[in-house]
Design a protein that fits this description.
The complex is a heterodimer of chains A (369) and B (273). Chain A contains nine helices and 20 strands. By secondary structure, chain A is of the alpha+beta class. Chain A folds into two domains: 222 residues, 3-Layer(aba) Sandwich (Rossmann fold); 112 residues, Beta Barrel (OB fold (Dihydrolipoamide Acetyltransferase, E2P)). Classes of the chains: A alpha+beta (369), B mainly alpha (273). Bound molecules: adenosine-5'-triphosphate and magnesium ion.
């Protein structure tokens, strides 16, 4: 988790995209990306399929040349520097391990390309260290196809980190692993990043993965950056309905802003329901807008008071219970009740009626997309 | 239907089997079996004409296969980046080269070479200081190697290209990412990956040339390859010696084909790992 980490905010960026656009024929895969990646941070590109995450990463790696704008690494403009001369390494989605080489030969590949070539003793020592770091001692002489998926991924990581890159790029490295293994690997990656102090740039479409691992997340949409921020920022202060929807779950209610008080807005929603909360920049009074309300911010009680609702559906999630409820004016929306909150009372059954309420100021007023 | 298939196979393989069987016949006459013997093999291998033809065949097959393998591999690699219409045209030309009957290729190559020689030889003679010592291009091993090499190149391109296309593109990127120069990547990643296909292409080209009679018949000039030798001797009647030669050619081709096929198969299994 990001909490407690020291990020060097004022350091100059280790990697940077400046007005970077990439076109493939008529397809704009990435449009005017502006992003400064800080040394030592763990940054994730997050977004749905086809939004340009891989393209952004490949421009950093040097596999794609920007159509417009520039890529900087460690302060140097890199547009015309080919991949093999960039101080970054990549972990590929399907690992791209060399099948004709052993595990040790795969790991030492990068070192063996260096000129002057390091001595055999140096290479062996570095490979041994990398195998140890990735908890693969003794696997050096093995063939790639003798390794399990999880082990192959460790080899791929070892092959990259042994070069001590300035930035490690990871393109959905966990996509091919099963759920349990993926979770273990997420923890391991985080530990590794802290231990090595290398900047990690991860591409994922798994919001949980991004939220749990990253210092900052760059959310993308249709080739553009929608918002960059810490997981907490994105969750608590999304600047668009798209981000609020993508990071965690949220309910959206359209309405009109009645009053704007500094950064606090009062929105009148369907049926005259009032939503008060932090308003996004650029919103004005008497303007159509959307109120976003997280399911866990809404409480459901049997005591009269609040908005009358009918329970439509119930999903038991262990520590929480998720209800889909319906109000005649607002329509269906989600409520998340913690076990603690429901202690004493018993669960609502589908068909039962209750009352939904939320703390004043809990909503977030966003521009209508 | 089964009977029909059986008849087809019998028709195809019985004559071959008969030749193999009679090559071990102790008797001199091709009509009756008189016990097992390898004397005809000994006889064939001690015949200087056979040995010379064998040598010619081996040289031509080796050189044309080497030529076809190098040119075919380079073409297959170059074709990676080619798409659209040029690609379609090149593909069509490749398949035509493989499918056109040997006799057409033989005649066409002969005409092309002879025309070329008619044009080049006078020029060479004119440029040479001593006109009567000027080198003359003529039909022979060189034209055999050229004709076989050209034809086999199409085979190599097809085989190697299939392998190149099946290769994981990200391996090349991974290599570059790890700091290998383009040449380093070719040497350390691409070449080992496609090597089975290159080897198989070489072996197939070799067999193709070693077995070929039709094209060789047209462009060999005064040279005698093994198939040409066999052809000219059977006009004097089929001897057990000829059976022995035929069986040896068959064995060489079969073994080479099986080896090539197994290399391709194994290469595929590994690439997938
Ligand atoms: N080499 C290419 N040629 C043509 N179009 C491409 C190429 N690479 C990517 N694109 C297009 O650019 C857009 C962005 O692709 P990209 O691979 O960056 O998406 P992504 O966010 O990584 O998606 P996913 O989560 O599915 O991997 C897509 O519309 C894709 O079709
Ligand atoms: Mg992708």
């Amino acid at each position: 988790m990001a909490a407690g980490r020291v990020t060097q905010v004022d350091d100059s960026p280790i990697a940077e995209l400046r007005g970077t656009t990439k076109r493939f024929g008529s397809v704009v895969a990435a449009r005017n990306l502006n992003l400064a990646i800080r040394p030592g941070e763990f940054l994730s590109f997050l977004g749905p399929s086809g939004c340009g995450k891989t393209t952004a990463l490949r421009m950093l790696a040097g596999f794609e040349t920007p159509s417009e704008g520039a890529v900087f690494l460690d302060g140097r403009q890199m547009n015309d520097v080919p991949a093999h001369r960039r101080p970054v390494n990549m972990v590929f989605q399907h690992y791209a391990l060399f099948p004709h080489l052993t595990v040790a030969e795969n790991i030492s590949y990068g070192l063996r390309q260096r000129r002057p070539k390091p001595s055999k003793a140096q290479i062996d020592a570095a490979v041994e260290r990398a195998l140890e770091t990735m908890r693969l001692p003794g696997f050096g002489p093995r063939r790639i196809w003798e390794m399990s998926g999880g082990q192959q991924q460790r080899v791929a990581l070892a092959r990259a980190i042994v070069n001590e890159p300035k930035v490690l790029l990871l393109d959905e490295p966990m996509a091919a692993l099963d759920k349990k293994l993926r979770h273990d690997m997420q923890i391991e990656l985080q530990t590794l990043q802290r231990q090595l102090g290398i900047t990690f740039v991860l591409v994922t479409h798994d919001q949980e993965e991004a939220l749990s691992m990253s210092d900052r997340i760059c959310i993308m949409r249709d080739g553009e950056i929608a918002q960059v921020g810490s997981p907490r920022d994105l969750y608590d202060r999304p600047t668009s309905r798209y981000v609020a929807d993508f990071v965690g779950k949220s309910n959206f209610f359209d309405g009109r802003i009645e009053r704007l008080d500094g950064s606090t807005a009062k929105l009148v929603g369907p049926g005259g329901t009032i939503f008060v909360g932090h308003a996004n920049e650029g919103l004005g009074s008497d303007q159509p807008a959307t109120a976003s309300l997280r399911p866990e911010q809404i409480s459901l009680t049997r005591d009269a008071g609040g908005l009358p609702v009918t329970v439509v559906n119930r999903i038991f999630l262990g520590e929480h219970t998720e209800y889909l409820v319906r109000n005649p004016d607002l329509g269906p929306f989600l409520v998340l009740a913690s076990r603690q909150a429901e202690a004493g009372t018993h669960n609502f059954e589908p068909g039962e009626t209750g009352y939904a309420s939320w703390r004043e100021g809990a909503a977030l007023i966003l521009s209508k997309d | 239907m089964r009977l029909y298939a059986l008849a087809v196979y019998l028709f195809l393989y019985v004559p071959i089997g008969v030749i193999a069987v009679f090559s071990f016949n102790a008797g001199r006459h091709a009509a009756q079996l008189q016990g097992f013997s390898t004397q005809w093999y000994g006889k064939a291998l001690s015949n200087p004409f056979v040995m010379e033809a064998l040598q010619t065949s081996a040289i031509v097959a080796g050189a044309s296969a080497a030529l076809a393998t190098i040119a075919g591999t380079l073409a297959a690699l170059a074709l990676q980046g080619v798409g659209g219409k040029p690609r379609a045209i090149f593909d069509a030309l490749l398949y035509i080269a493989v499918m056109v009957p040997g006799i057409v290729i033989g005649i066409a190559t002969l005409i092309a070479l002879v025309t070329l020689f008619d044009w080049v030889n006078p020029v060479l003679a004119a440029l040479w200081p001593l006109a009567d010592q000027a080198p003359q291009l003529h039909l022979g091993k060189g034209s055999l190697i050229a004709a076989h090499g050209l034809f086999a190149m199409a085979l190599v391109v097809i085989i190697v290209r299939a392998r190149v296309a099946g290769m994981d593109r990200s391996l090349v990127e991974a290599s570059a990412d790890l700091g290998a120069t383009p040449w380093g990547t070719f040497r350390q990643v691409t070449l080992p990956q496609i090597f089975p296909a290159i080897l198989a292409g070489f072996l197939l080209s070799f067999t193709f040339s070693f077995d070929d009679f039709i094209i060789a018949f047209f462009v060999a000039g005064s040279e005698t390859t093994l198939p040409i030798y066999v052809f000219s001797s059977i006009r004097r009647g089929v001897t057990p010696e000829i059976n022995a030669i035929g069986t040896m050619v068959l064995a060489v081709s079969l073994v080479t084909l099986v080896v090539a096929q197994s290399i391709l198969q194994r290469g595929r299994g590994r690439g997938a790992a």
